[in-house]
Specification:
Layout lengths: L1 H15 L4 H61 L1
Helix pairs in contact: 1-2
Length: about 80
């Protein structure tokens, strides 16, 4: 969409030596739309990255707790057997 606006502006300038109001309006809307789309994309990537990090930290914490519990049980069993 950005490319079509830029091409339209160049064609308008080279054929009439002037960029008309309609072409400028189209270009402005294309740039605004593209900025909104890219902005939303970046926003959601950031939020998903934060959520992914939180989930990963939670899983790592749970794994560490389970591992510590298993080690404690094994050492307890070894002292009971001896």
């Amino acid at each position: 969409m950005i490319a079509s606006g830029v091409v339209l502006a160049f064609i308008s300038f080279f054929t009439k030596d002037d960029v008309t109001e309609g072409v400028l309006l189209y270009l402005a809307q294309a740039l605004t739309f593209a900025g909104g789309v890219f902005g939303l994309n970046i926003y959601f990537r950031t939020k998903l990255g934060v959520a992914e990090t939180s989930v990963r930290e939670y899983i790592d914490q749970r794994i560490a707790e389970r591992t510590a519990e298993n080690i404690a049980k094994e050492s307890e069993e070894q002292t009971t057997e001896a």
